[in-house]
Amino acid sequence: MTAIIYIASFLVLLGVLVTIHEYGHFIVARMCKVHVQRFSLGMGPVVYKRLDKHGTEIALSLLPLGGYVSMITNRLVELEPEIKNQLTEEQAKNTFDSKPKWQRASIMFAGPLANFLLSIFIFSVIFLNTPDPQTVSVIKSVDSSVSLESSEQFILPGDQITSINSLVIRDPKDLNLELLSYAGFTGLINLTLKRVDIDSPQDISIYVENFLPTSESQSNPLKYLGLEVEYKMRPIIGQIENDGPADLSSLKPNDVVLKINNSKIYYASDIRSVISPIPNQDVQIDVLRGSDIISFPVKLGVFKDQSGQDLGMLGISFGTNRTLVQAVSKGVFETYNLSIKTLQFIGKMLTGNMGTENLSGPIGIAQMAGNTAQAGFLPFMYLMALLSISLAVLNLLPIPVLDGGQLTLLGIEAVRGKPLPEKVENFIYTGGGVMVLALMIFAIFNDVSRFF
Hints:
Elements (H helix, E strand, L loop, with lengths): L1 H30 L4 E16 L5 E15 L2 H6 L2 H4 L3 H5 L7 H29 L5 E8 L17 E5 L2 E2 L4 H8 L6 E8 L7 E7 L6 H4 L2 H5 L1 E7 L3 E4 L4 H4 L7 E5 L2 E2 L3 H8 L6 E8 L2 E8 L1 E4 L5 E4 L2 E3 L5 H28 L10 H14 L1 H19 L7 H14 L5 H28 L3
Antiparallel strand pairs: 1-2, 3-4, 3-8, 4-5, 4-6, 6-7, 9-16, 10-11, 10-12, 12-13, 14-15
């Protein structure tokens, strides 16, 4: 049963990503009136096909490891003259080569663009249907090996990391992603810290030399930097239990808890620490609502823990719901940020600053697909969004046979005023095919080596 889950989830994952990618090419080709001979999902022998009203063969092929859009080109007609006899006059004149360069470029770019749009859509749906945890990164301890730029600078436990090298940390995972992009770097990494008792931000510079040199260090960049971090939720009320103590006291979602009695509240965990020892007691809670600070008298409730001890409770949970605009905005940013990071990591692999063992082939992807499918629908969709970004970015690399390589050749054609000689193009495409094949073999080797 487990094997079926892994295989099925892999096929669904790959099927959706490839279908969206190829449909991007297909729909823009159709918009540019280029005749598409075949739109195939899968590679190899065709197992099912039908013609649509435009004369395009919609096909399902045997091997579910890709797909393609076969457009009529002048070269194809030259190599296989009998094809022209199968085309109408309108179809024969609407070859890919006959279109302006901007239309050909649009068709090539449409596949990666479709994957970017899929990622934005998936992230937006996820963010709309899950609460924003309002989590911040709080320094728990500082290693004595940390090398600060100035003796006047210092880092304290309890400091919040708000940005790294001017990049605002919107999500705790962005911390490690940003630090990973500095693998092999020598120089200053600049942190902006917020101290709970100081309004102005604190700028700290940590000197690193050959940062994150090994795969082990890259698995935990913060630790290698010399910092131990814990993630804490802001004390922003998310949901309120009906007829609970908070509800009866007129507290509302999005209220920020500032103080309970005389105890200042910095994080959601502080609230539990204050109220747990005092069940059924009256407390005064100060909250920030909009721009106003309001004080509420609240009679705490009570619940029993696993040992049967009475603990105080407010009847609230943390993490706020996003609006549609907020969810889409975060979806766009997440897609942009992860695209940039993917490019940076590829660059780090090429320079040797990041281990190539991070590359995964079909076996590794199948394993991830199965694991996330068993974890739930949203984790599986999150993986789909991540892989959709990877597929888009990889296809835009200037490697012949990939979309980016064809865009590069179009750029060369625009500069020269004519295409490259046929022999040169054939040599370039052959070299690109060899590169892609070698990369695939290496990724599969990485997959297999993880089992031994």
